[in-house]
Each structure stands twice: as C-alpha cells, then as structure tokens.
Amino acid sequence: MQNFWQKNNLLKLENDTFIIDMMYATPENITCHPIYMEVGFGAKAYLHADAVAKLEKVAHILKNIRLKLRIRDAYRPPVAHNRILEVLPVKGLFASKAENSLHCYGTALDCCLADEHGNNLLFPTEIDAYEKKYAEQIASGKTDDFYLHFAKAASDFYALGYEEAIKNRSLLRQIMFDAGFEGIKSEWWHFQLPQSKELYSLIEWTNQ
Ligand SMILES: [Zn+2]
Question: On the chain, which terminus has fewer CB atoms closer than 10 Å, C or N?
C-alpha cells in the first residue's frame, strides 16, 4: 500500500548541499511555538517531486560555486498552517487559510544561501522577516517597528548599505529562476513552482 508521501508525490529533501532547518519545528519563529512538533508532524522537509527535480538542478549549480541552500520551510501540513493562525491571530502575516498557502500544496519553499561551512550569507533580513524579537510587539498590536523592518522582505528592496545583502539575494534568485522556480514580490526567500494553483492541489497530511 502506498504511504502518505508516495500517494501525494512528495519526496524528502536530501542532498549534502541542503541544510534542513525547519523554522516551524522549533520555537524560534514569530509564533514562539514549535508548531510542527505540536501538530505531530516533526522536522520533516518534503516537497512535490516536480520541485525536488528543480532543486536537484539548484544543488548542482551550488556545488560548483561551493555554496549550500538552507531550507527553512517546505511542505506545510494544513493542520500546521491552521495552528499558526490559531496562536498568532494577526491579519496579514500569514495566508488567511491553508488553501492560499502554496506551502500546503508542497510546491513552495523558503530558503537562503550559506557558505560551505553552513554560515548564512548576508541577506536583507532573516528568513522569514517575521523574527521572534517582534513577536511581543505584534501580539500587542504595536506593529510600526515590524512593518518598517518588513519592507526589507520585498524582493526589490534596495537601500544604501545593503549592497552585499542585495548581491546575495540576486544570486539566490538567479539560481532558483534558472532551475525553474518563480519568486514572489513580497518575500525574497520564498520560491514556488509556476502555476501551482492550476497544476497541484492542497495536501492534507495524515499521520500514517
Ligand atoms: Zn514561503
């Protein structure tokens, strides 16, 4: 019998060029909760086979320039997305329902570049820009500082003093685009398969 992963064409992200560092598997994220642990999913990194095929190309390119890809989110079970919305009921931070997040389709990932020792290259923000230090402010409704910071998440953000971060962002985007992913304007670290909504479906996770 096919298991959940086979049935949904999801493959584990395994390559010595990838650093698997799922941010919602630990409390080190804006929700302050280890969401993936709370729902019983664990620190698993899976994506649709079509995305994994493109990531193999990314790994090949990175190997030649001696860099690694730090992956901070991949397939997100809808139950985990709902748990995020439950513990952080602030509009506008996350997709308002699982159907609107391509992570729940297994076709999106959040990532950045690291050197061969695993140290992140400089980028305009951490991944995501929803850094834990803003958690308290956001929860109390004081969002001015956060939104000032969040401007740096835009994939076309530019400001003096950020030259190196922007050069690294361009390199990451070029590599991901060359491999066949598309980006989004609001988050420099997010990449997805083109036409995800048309070609793929939401994947409900079942623990089997
Ligand atoms: Zn994302």
Answer: N
Residue 116 annotated among the catalytic residues of the structure: no
Write out the residue range of the structural domain in which residue 107 sits: 4-199
Mind listing the pLDDT tens digit for each residue in 34-92?
Answer: 999 999 999 999 999 999 999 999 999 999 999 999 999 999 999 999 999 999 888 88
- Bridge partners (DSSP) of residue 191 are 109, 183
> Residue 70 domain-assigned?
yes
Residue 188 CA to ligand 1 centre (angstroms):
9
| Helical H segments across 35-142, by residue range | 35-38, 49-64, 78-87, 135-139
User: How sure is the predictor about 208, in pLDDT bands with cuts at 50, 70 and 90?
Assistant: low
In a domain, 204, yes or no: no
Count how many domains the chain has: 1
Query: What distance in angstroms lies between residue 1's CA and the mean position of ligand 1's atoms?
Result: 32
> Within 10 Å of residue 166's Cβ, how many Cβ atoms?
18
d(CA 189, ligand 1 centre) in Å: 7
pLDDT at 144: 84
Q: Is residue 206 part of a domain?
A: no
- Read off the CATH number of the domain in which 170 is found: 3.30.1380.10
